[in-house]
Every structure is written in C-alpha cells, then in structure tokens.
UniProtKB/TrEMBL annotation:
Enzyme active site: K60 (charge relay system), S135 (charge relay system), S159 (acyl-ester intermediate)
Quaternary state and interactors: Heterotrimer of A, B and C subunits.
InterPro entries: Amidase (IPR000120), Amidase_CS (IPR020556), Amidase_dom (IPR023631), AS_sf (IPR036928), GatA (IPR004412)
Matching SUPFAM superfamilies: Amidase signature (AS) enzymes
GO biological process: translation
The entry's keywords: ATP-binding, Ligase, Nucleotide-binding, Protein biosynthesis
Enzyme Commission numbers on file: 6.3.5.7
Catalysed reactions, as listed in the record: L-glutamyl-tRNA(Gln) + L-glutamine + ATP + H2O = L-glutaminyl-tRNA(Gln) + L-glutamate + ADP + phosphate + H(+)
Source taxonomy: Bacteria, Bacillati, Actinomycetota, Actinomycetes, Kitasatosporales
Residue intervals of the Amidase domain: 5-451
The protein's name in its UniProt record: Glutamyl-tRNA(Gln) amidotransferase subunit A
Free-text function comment from the UniProt entry: Allows the formation of correctly charged Gln-tRNA(Gln) through the transamidation of misacylated Glu-tRNA(Gln) in organisms which lack glutaminyl-tRNA synthetase. The reaction takes place in the presence of glutamine and ATP through an activated gamma-phospho-Glu-tRNA(Gln).
GO MF terms held by the record: ATP binding; glutaminyl-tRNA synthase (glutamine-hydrolyzing) activity
C-alpha cells in the first residue's frame, strides 16, 4: 500500500471515531496528506527514504511543531503557533513519518487522567466512560482506537507508562537524557522525558531508535550511542536474566486482578528461563511525597515564562490595566486549577525559610531512591512491577480528589526520580472488569535495550 492510502485510511478512522474518543486536539489533514504524497513520489523516483517512511503518528501537544498549534492542553497557549520544531518533531520528519496531528493531554502534563485538559477529557477506547490515563491519554487512546499506529508521549512521573497500561498499549520512558527535551514544553525539567508509544514492543523500538540520541540543543542530553533497542525487541530471550520483584510495589490499594496478572507475568518469565529475585526498596514508599514537592517546585519556576507578553493568550489588554495586571489576569484566565495548585505549592516549597524543610528533604529522598535502585541493580538485570495499582477508573471519580489521582503513579514515579529507563507492556485483562493491565519493566540508565528484550518476551 502507498503512504497516501495508509494516511487516508487513518484520517478516515479519525473522522469516524474521534468525535467520541477525543484523542486529538488538532488534526493536520493537509500536512499529513502532503507528507504522504511526498513519500510516495520519492519512492517512485527511487530516492532514499527515512526509516519510518509513510507511517502515520500522533504527537502529544507538548512538542512544538512549526506552523501547527501547540497548546500543551492549556488555554494560556491558545492561538500560539510555534515558529520552530522540537528536536523530536524534526527527527520524526527526517525519518519521513507522517504526523497526523496533536494529541490531548492534561494541562502542562499535570495529571493522570487527561481530565485536566482545558479542551475536555479523552475517553478510553475500551470503555468511553473511563479515563485513558494521563497526562498522555490522547496519545495512548489514539493507538487503542486505531486512529494511529504510533504516538509520542512524555513522562515526568508516569505519563507515558500509565496511559499505556490502562489502554492496553506499549509505552516507554527512555533513560533521562536519552531523548532530547528541546522544544518539549517544560513541566519539571529534571524529570521530563519524551518517549515512544505503540501497539507492539517492536513498533515502540523502531520509533525509539528514530527519536533518541544526543542533541547539543539539550544540555542534559546523553552523548553516548543509543542502546540497540530494535535488536532487543526482535530477540526477546530472557533465559538467565535476573528479574527483581520489589516487595514495596504491592499491598493496600492494589486491585486483585492487577496483582493476579502481574504474578502470572512473573511466572511466565520464570518459565522462559529468567531467575526471579525478591527485593526490598524501602525508600520507594516516600517517592510520591518527594515527587509532589520536586515536580511542583520545578513547574513554579518553568511556568513563570507564561507572563502574557511572550506567547498565546493575553487578557485585560484594553489600555486600562498595568502590565502586571495583564499578567495576573491572563494567568487567572489561562491556567486551570491543577496548574495553579502546583505553582502555589512549588512557590511555597521553594520560599526562603521553607526550602530546606520541603525541597531540600525531597531531594534527599530522591537520592535514597536512586541508591535503592543502585543496590537492586547489583542483584538483578531488571525490576518488574504492575504499572498502575488499578485498571482505568471512571471519568470524574477522582477529579475532585488530587490525592486519589496522584496514587495512579505510585509505581511509575521512582524511575523518574532516579532517571532510569522503564516500559509498560500489556499483560492481560483484569478478571473483575475486563480492562487492560500493564506490566512495568525497569532497567538501569542507558540499558533501555533490556526493557525491549523483556517486553518482547511477555508480549
Ligand atoms: N501524574 C503525574 C503528575 O500529575 C505525572 C505526570 C507526567 O508524567 N507528566 O504530575
């Protein structure tokens, strides 16, 4: 089939279902078809094509796209058209990927359900009354609804892996520094990491290898060769691999059917020749608390740039208000409740007199979590856990209860704090509700290939 046929088929699918799913904030029909035609013409002329030529993709609306709106799910960037491409966008274009459009997300990637989007929630294609996870619910829903075969997400505390788990798709948070953050709107810079989303482990690997690798425009980008994730995904051999099961990733709040599928996955790995080792990582119980100080602190600093002067929305600009009032009115109108909550929390945690007690303590816990992982990886090659404590919950159920919402990331946050690599891969449906369950695989920094090896084995 031609790239034009594939692209047209996906655009038709979007037309047929996206009114209900609402995975997309913006569909770039003309741009996608133009790219597809370009690919077909190049192919006809025998010209060299990129490694993912003609494959459609859904891009989270947190990556800048030259000439295409980028809202980050926020009213504050409504109407802003970026003048440049993020490095991820640029690499996708160079790989001859067809970008279908921009996907829905929690505002500024703050959330676990996509309900915090200023543009309305996304439905989970398995049950439209349930959440598709967040913040990258649009990207994962676009895969589960067959609107796109590939997607890109970002993961600060779980926003690639948690949506993957609850939609029955694959999502990978590469090693921190593995994928460039240039042009990815910043939430919490020491945690944010872009990565691939797909329906199979091999598809995720092919996308990973296209977007990853050193970028001089991102000072935290790792200047080392990208691990061979494609070979690992094709290989899938786990014989002799040491797999760690952490006892802190279990207990109160974990759904029975999620634990059942998790235990079966561990059993499967054992049958395939892996050696299973029980571990304890005591600091993991404090990860959520540390994250909810560090991430809001960094966001309070990053979001200061939305001052009504530089980008997007400007409220109260009628000649009767001072510049300071315009900034305040714009932030009042442009930011949603969760964003305001975090900016206030972060500003408080960083203020003089409180800094040591809050931000300082959280950084110490972060170090302890990193050490727990270091000790674990002396004994095992990968750690596995459920990706989420429960399957997809109903839209609205946790919307007014931030603490309940934050619990969705209980298992994913430690890897962001330590900066290592992690994947969610489907491992069956929970017997009690028939909804997808994700297995999380965690590997040391720059050993991303191990995720794909194990993911391919259990897929
Ligand atoms: N749910 C977490 C939060 O709200 C993680 C979000 C993310 O990874 N972007 O911060």
């Amino acid at each position: 089939v031609s790239a034009v046929e594939v692209t047209a088929a996906h655009l038709e699918r979007i037309d047929a279902v996206d009114e209900k799913v609402h995975a997309f904030l913006h569909v770039d029909r003309e741009g996608a078809m133009a790219k597809a035609r370009e690919v077909d013409e190049k192919r006809a002329r025998g010209e060299k094509l990129g490694p993912l030529a003609g494959v459609p993709l859904a891009l989270k609306d947190i990556f800048t796209t030259e000439g295409i709106p980028t809202t980050v799910g926020s009213k504050i960037l409504e109407g802003w058209i970026p003048p440049y491409d993020a490095t991820v966008t640029k690499r996708l274009k160079e790989a001859d990927v067809v970008i279908l459009g921009k996907t829905n997300m929690d505002e500024f990637a703050m959330g676990s359900s996509t309900e915090n989007s200023a543009y309305g929630p996304t439905g989970n294609p398995w049950d439209l009354t349930r959440i598709p996870g967040g913040s990258g619910g649009g990207s994962s829903a676009s895969l589960a609804s067959y609107e796109a075969p590939l997607a890109i997400g970002t993961d600060t505390g779980g926003s690639i892996r948690q949506p993957a788990a609850v939609t029955g798709t694959v999502g990978v948070k590469p090693t921190y520094g593995g994928v460039s953050r240039y042009g990815m709107v910043a939430f919490s810079s020491s945690l944010d990491q872009g990565g691939p989303c797909a329906r199979t482990v091999l598809d995720a690997a092919l996308l990973h290898s296209v977007i990853a690798g050193h970028d001089e425009k991102d000072s935290t980008s790792i200047d080392q060769p990208v691990p061979d994730v494609v070979e690992a995904a094709r290989n899938g051999n786990v014989a002799g691999l040491r797999v760690g099961v952490v006892k802190e990733f279990r207990g109160e709040g974990y759904q029975a059917g999620v634990m059942q599928r998790f235990d079966e996955s561990v059993e499967l790995l054992r049958e395939l020749g892996a050696e299973v080792v029980e571990l304890s990582c005591p600091s993991f119980t404090k990860a959520l608390a540390a994250y909810y100080l560090i991430a809001p602190s960094e966001c309070s600093s990053n979001l200061a740039r939305f001052d009504a002067m530089r980008y997007g929305l400007r409220a109260g600009d009628d000649g009767t208000h001072s510049a300071e009032e315009v900034t305040a009115l714009t932030r009042e109108a442009g930011f949603g409740d969760e964003v305001k909550r975090r900016v206030m929390l972060g500003t408080y945690a960083l203020s003089s007199g409180y800094y040591d007690a809050y931000y300082g303590s959280a950084q110490k816990v972060r170090t302890l979590i990193t050490r727990d992982f270091e000790r674990a990886f002396e004994q095992v090659d990968v750690v596995v856990s459920p990706t989420t404590p429960t399957t997809a919950f109903p839209i609205g159920e946790r919307a007014d209860d931030p603490m309940a919402m934050y619990l969705a990331d209980l298992c994913t946050i430690p890897s962001n704090l330590a900066g290592n690599a992690a994947m969610s891969v489907p491992c069956g449906l929970a017997p009690e509700d028939g909804l997808p369950v994700g297995l999380q695989i965690i590997a040391p920094a720059m050993a991303d290939d191990r995720l794909y090896r194990v993911g391919a084995a259990v897929e």
